[in-house]
């Protein structure tokens, strides 16, 4: 670590401070996950992987990879001949922010980013099913509510943000490709809620803390009747895509000679149901092993199908 | 992974889902850091470590350790004969929330938790100095502000929360012990600001996104003139300590036969200045190697000095 510039720290090689990548190592089409183990599993679907000689839980030898000292793992190769990257980012809105900003800083031209995550289901989607949210809102603990003074008598203990939308073409393509891999009856559409805690802001009951979250599920459905999933990252991806500019793009770098959008990032997401919050069921290891690679292939198919 | 109960998932062994620890593996006195490499460095100060035969970047053989599949590292041993743990949690408010809640769930009796982090300095504290914040507030991007509709004409782009206080005895003890290790003129007191982004919510300028954060430093100082540091986790620790209950404690488990507090967690924090935001300076590797172990010893001294 020998960083310069506290405004946007990079090392002497040009690697960003947290994700640890530099220009040339990341494709414009990115699949992002939380768990590094999932990234390694999905990398087995990339071109040229010698599956017989690639032990499970190892990164295929023909691919570029970089594990940063702060827990990010980047793997770059091609899928059906098109350059793609997989980036594992860990958990939470702050980690998604690191990932989007540090990747944007080292890639030229427009980007497509699709998240493949896990989630809790508030709808009828069962464990092992896939949800593709067209939009996402943020569930934040209203920390001030818990300060113990009288200012907040009328405030609510959780703040629910406005909905930010996924790219409609990416969402449509994901639904189509997920259905092809897993069957129509295992693929769901709706809206995602991203929470700043796995516990209080997802309505989990924990007597060890004052959480005031008994009515949270009801409030989520009142806020957005089509609320389908709860997880911890997707909102930030959709939000940053919508607030991305075209600042880093020279006009010559934009495909077809002109920008189709004021944003340089187009984003979508899908998630596997790990927890069914209405029935309290949790996914089995066997279901994860079965669904994860198929869902990954559907994301790669979508990443290379959508035009930049 | 074979979890039960979507409300508070634990595996068949009783390990929590993300931090991965179970009852009996964690001490009531915990030093928490972000970077696993820092946890391993600090573990060298624990009792019975054979420094000659413990290579750098390895966990001493006499200590318990557990690395979870989601990036948490727990190391437990003793310091001056008192059981202590070190837990590396990664980055961001959501990761601090995982850590506090999953640790609280598997430890009986009252807990002391002290964070040793890194930060940016908004004050005169120089790179390599230590700051010990008596309180912390949260800087959150006001996501709704960026929705592009007219609802938010009067809203500000960032929300600054109320201040939550550290445990005063822990703070006082930390200042004393840090000064003994590093000298009075390298130890600072003040208030911390915890941000939900390393970039926009810490006032970093990035043309790739619409951030509206040019005036953020001014607003922080107006909100709290004694704002000293910016980082990404401490607020959540102070907040959860203040909202912790005594629910998990049987009366017999409380020291002296009675509870001194309505909270089961007492918390403090200190941070090394890595970035000087006024001069744009960044810490050198040599300064980290020099300061980190001394700061760690001062935290351990404080953890075992304060009565549970």
TrEMBL record, chains A, B:
A GO term for molecular function: uridine phosphorylase activity
Residues of the Nucleoside phosphorylase domain: 29-256
Domain of life according to the entry: Eukaryota
Gene Ontology BP, a term: uridine catabolic process
InterPro entries xrefs: Nucleoside_phosphorylase_d (IPR000845), Nucleoside_phosphorylase_sf (IPR035994)
GO cellular component, one term: cytosol
PANTHER family the UniProt entry points to: URIDINE PHOSPHORYLASE
Record's protein name: Nucleoside phosphorylase domain-containing protein
Organism of origin: Mortierella alpina (Oleaginous fungus)
């Amino acid at each position: 670590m020998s960083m310069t510039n506290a405004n946007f720290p990079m090392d002497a090689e040009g690697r960003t401070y947290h994700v640890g990548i530099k220009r040339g190592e990341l494709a414009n089409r990115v699949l992002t996950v939380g768990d590094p183990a999932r990234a390694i599993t999905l990398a087995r679907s990339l071109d040229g992987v010698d599956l017989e000689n690639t032990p499970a839980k190892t990164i295929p030898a023909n691919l570029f990879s970089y594990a940063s000292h702060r827990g990010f793992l980047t793997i770059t190769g091609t899928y059906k001949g098109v350059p793609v990257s997989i980036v594992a980012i860990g958990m939470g809105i702050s980690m998604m922010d690191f990932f989007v900003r540090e990747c944007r800083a080292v890639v030229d031209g427009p980007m497509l980013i699709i998240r493949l995550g896990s989630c809790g289901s508030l709808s009828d989607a069962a464990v092992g099913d896939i949800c593709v949210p067209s939009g996402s809102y943020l569930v934040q603990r209203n920390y001030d509510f818990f300060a113990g003074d009288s200012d907040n008598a009328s405030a609510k203990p959780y703040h629910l943000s406005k909905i930010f939308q996924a790219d409609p073409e990416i969402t449509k393509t994901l639904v189509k490709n997920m259905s092809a891999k897993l069957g129509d009856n295992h693929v769901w559409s709706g809206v995602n809620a991203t929470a700043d805690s796995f516990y209080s802001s997802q309505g989990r009951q924990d007597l060890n803390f004052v959480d005031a979250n008994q009515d949270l599920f009801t409030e989520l459905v009142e806020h957005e009747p089509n609320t389908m999933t709860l997880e911890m990252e997707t909102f930030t991806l959709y939000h940053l895509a919508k607030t991305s500019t075209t600042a880093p793009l020279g006009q010559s770098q934009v495909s077809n000679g002109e920008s189709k959008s004021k944003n340089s990032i187009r984003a979508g997401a899908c998630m596997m149901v790990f927890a069914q919050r209405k029935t309290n069921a949790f996914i089995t290891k066997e279901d994860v092993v079965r669904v994860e690679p198929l869902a990954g292939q559907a994301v790669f198919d979508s990443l290379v199908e959508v035009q930049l």
